[in-house]
Design brief:
2 domains, 10 helices, 51% helix
Amino acid sequence: MDRREPFVFFTEQRLVVITGRHASDLGELLEGLREVSGSSIFYHFHQRYLSHHFEKPPFRSAFADWVARALLEERLAEKLTGIDLFSMRSVRQVREATAEAIERYLAEVNGRLRKCPEGDEFHFCESKSFVVPLGLTAHNVRELAGLLPRVTNASLFYHFFESRLRLERTHSDFSEWIAYRGAPELAAAIDRLDPYLFSLDKLKAEICRLADTWLTEAGGDV
């Protein structure tokens, strides 16, 4: 995204691919974590945000959900859910933090490997994204704020989650563009939002609230 140009909203279509790799215990899960693609790591940490639009998912990743449900390792699931994704700047950091949490837990339980029930293995998947314009364009901050309620959750996910973690950037597309358009305070407020604490619907509502408040205080055309 070129911040000097009008803001073009994009969305993405996802094709989920099964890698053929699976895990039946923590040892195999750890080995897979170290070797699968970054796309697979990103997918398993974020698929639930796209499927739970109206509520925050109970676990932050498919890894934590499987560990709790199939292996009954609830303490580890809590540790995995406690990983601060908002502070991460790359998928590599997420991979390392997850692997380290599992390694520490295995040390605590003296390497015990509890097998999942047959047929309940963890299947590593990855997603291939096809990015297309949504058909909405903003030329200033006021137009951007007016269009946000019409933006799909998939578009919000692309501009807020994808732009930061997969592209290894410190700001979302929204914040970067808004700051360049003369609203650094609004950009900073949006940057402070931890998207992992909200459902996508609530995240959108919070961004809209911040933008509306700023526009009311700023006045004029921005």
